[in-house]
Amino acid sequence: MAFDAKVVWITGASSGIGRSLAQQFAEHGAKLVLSARRERALRDVQQSCRDAESHFVLPLDLCEPAAVGPAASHVLERFGQIDILVNNAGISQRALALDTKLDVDRQIMETNYFGQWH
What DSSP designation does 52 have? Predict the structure, then answer.
């Protein structure tokens, strides 16, 4: 499948599944918008992708709702379109519910649920 001239915005692009998706979309000709909280890691992902200079690093924390609208406007100004959005950003907790503080659960919900809606 070719993604030539398609703009693909990937949240959670700094590692794991997001990084792998970025590399695969780039291999198939997509122009990428790489978002996550860690800019340095995003730059590493950008450099690992084919045609690195054509991709755009846009640091973004989905837990900051006020940042999402301006980020989308910035992408549209740069590329004129967003063809595919991969809402991959997320965090996890590896502990028993009994051992997990409520603020940790709230942070997970803020990122994994509400962050996707923003």
Answer: G
